């Protein structure tokens, strides 16, 4: 994997479409997220374009009038990168590049680029590299050939730089080699997990940037990297944690996102095995995010893909310190009061009811409600522990002192 030579801020434009499945508010939020992704990768977003259309144009994704508008802006402002919110077909990518004459990325390419930037261990690097090659394979037709390739930067961190003109066969060989390498590592990881004995295993899951690593650091006194960026953490960290004498293993790993590229889900198998083999999931949610309920949905989609949706789960609503309800004007007789106006207490009631009391409301940063959190995790872990070691229930009282 080739790293960026500099992280200079590249002038970036982002583009999305609005269709009947996503209204204007939703599209705005999707583009907000894409802008955050572009920012995480080192880009400076100058402008957003959107277009109302039912299905993307097969040739240029957006319509010809819109693409001309984008072209003008790109030329006038010397934009170097244009990012689309959906996956482009290799043909669309090629066509658009010919028109805009700059680097064209789609959402998947951008996410892969961030992953490439952030993979720390050789294991994570191998996983990302495999996903990059699989993404590259159908796109090998002389893409980006006229671009100055030595420069690096967004979307250029990866096999695209060196392998682009080489034969597909070489890329295929590389893919099978990486797969073999991962199988070997997967086996080692499985053995390692097996060696951890019968300790209860708890996994933090959730959307990216919700505070999983922050919570891990508070609970396990570890030093996992936490940052206000998407996908700050890729590598899995496992710590032994003791609450009220009861030991268990807590793991923190990569977060999920809407439309997580399938190449990534596949190559991050071992990372996701950590979730699959957990006894208890802590599904962390950023309640201060306007879209948090959709985030929960996206996470649940991936959990169900890896057959982990039925696991015992506690919903952990984090960042209550910065939650703000939209102001509600009681005298306004037309506007209806909706969940956007809920107080934290109302959300608490709603979710406690929805998930049968299995919800906690905390601030990992300000350490609010962490005692309640510890109590609850203790109680849940204890339940699982004493099914394995029935004689041990003497050791662990039902509640903490
Ligand atoms: N205000 C506030 N910010 C938080 C809280 N927990 C985490 N954060 C911030 O949210 C950002 C993402 O946190 P991180 O732990 O890296 O999220 P992860 O991607 O889920 O692991 C960081 O800037 C944290 O400081 C919280 O309870 N309140
Ligand atoms: Mg993290």
Helices and strands, with pairings:
Blueprint: E1 10-18, H1 24-40, E2 43-52, H2 64-76, E3 81-84, H3 90-100, E4 103-106, H4 107-118, H5 122-136, H6 160-163, H7 168-195, E5 200-206, H8 212-220, E6 237-243, E7 246-252, H9 262-267, H10 269-276, E8 280-286, H11 292-305, E9 313-318, H12 344-354, E10 359-361, H13 370-388
Parallel strand pairs: 1-2, 1-3, 3-4, 5-7, 5-8, 8-9, 9-10
Antiparallel strand pairs: 6-7
The chain binds guanosine-5'-diphosphate and magnesium ion.
Give the count of structural domains: 2
Mean pLDDT: 86
Strand content: 15-25%
Shape: globular
In angstroms, what separates the terminal alpha carbons? 51 Å
Report the count of strand segments: 10
Q: How large, in whole angstroms, is the Cα Rg?
A: 23 Å
Q: Strand order within the widest sheet?
A: 6-7-5-8-9-10
Unreliable segments of 5+ consecutive residues: 1-7, 143-151
Which structural category do the helix and sheet elements fall into? alpha/beta
For this structure, the quaternary state is single chain
Q: How many helical stretches?
A: 13
Q: CATH architecture of the largest domain, please?
A: 3-Layer(aba) Sandwich
N to C succession of SSEs: EHEHEHEHHHHEHEEHHEHEHEH
Q: Share of helix among residues?
A: 40-55%
Write down the CATH class of the largest domain: Alpha Beta
CATH superfamily of the largest domain: P-loop containing nucleotide triphosphate hydrolases
The major beta sheet can be summarized as: 6 strands, mixed
The kinds of small molecule bound in this structure are: guanosine-5'-diphosphate, magnesium ion
């Amino acid at each position: 994997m080739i790293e960026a030579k500099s992280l200079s801020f590249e002038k970036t434009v982002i583009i999305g479409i609005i269709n009947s499945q996503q209204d204007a508010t939703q599209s705005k939020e999707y583009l907000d997220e894409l802008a955050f992704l572009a920012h995480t990768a080192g880009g400076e977003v100058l402008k957003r374009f959107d277009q109302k259309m039912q299905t993307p144009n097969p040739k240029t994704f957006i319509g010809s009038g819109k693409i001309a508008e984008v072209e003008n802006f790109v030329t006038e402002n010397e934009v170097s990168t244009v990012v689309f919110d959906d996956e482009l077909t290799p043909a669309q990518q090629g066509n658009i590049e010919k028109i805009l004459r700059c680097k064209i990325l789609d959402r998947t390419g951008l996410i892969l680029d961030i992953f490439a930037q952030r993979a720390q261990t050789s294991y994570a690097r191998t996983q990302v590299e495999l996903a990059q090659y699989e993404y590259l394979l159908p796109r090998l037709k002389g893409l980006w050939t006229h671009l100055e390739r030595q420069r690096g930067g967004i979307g250029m961190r990866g096999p695209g730089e060196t392998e682009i003109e080489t034969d597909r066969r070489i890329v295929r060989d590389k893919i099978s080699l990486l797969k073999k390498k991962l199988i070997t590592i997967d086996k080692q990881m499985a053995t390692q997990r097996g060696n951890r004995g019968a300790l209860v295993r708890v996994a933090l899951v959730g959307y990216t940037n919700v505070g999983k690593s922050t919570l891990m650091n508070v609970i396990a006194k570890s030093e996992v990297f936490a940052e206000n960026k998407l996908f700050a953490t890729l590598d899995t960290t496992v710590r032994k944690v003791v609450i009220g004498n009861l030991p268990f293993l807590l793991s923190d790993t990569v977060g999920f996102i809407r439309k997580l590229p399938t190449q990534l889900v596949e190559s991050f198998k071992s990372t996701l095995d950590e979730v699959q083999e957990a006894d208890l999931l802590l599904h962390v949610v950023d309640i201060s995010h306007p879209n948090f309920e959709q985030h929960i949905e996206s996470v649940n989609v991936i959990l169900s893909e890896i057959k982990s949706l039925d696991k015992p789960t506690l919903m952990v609503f984090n960042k209550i310190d910065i939650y703000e309800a939209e102001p509600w004007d009681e005298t306004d007789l037309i506007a209806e009061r909706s969940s956007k106006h809920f107080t934290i207490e109302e959300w608490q009631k709603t979710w406690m009811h929805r998930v049968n009391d299995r919800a906690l409301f905390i601030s990992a940063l300000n350490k609010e409600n962490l005692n309640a959190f510890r109590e609850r995790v203790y109680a849940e872990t204890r339940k699982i522990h004493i099914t394995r070691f029935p004689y041990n229930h003497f050791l662990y009282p039902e509640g903490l002192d």
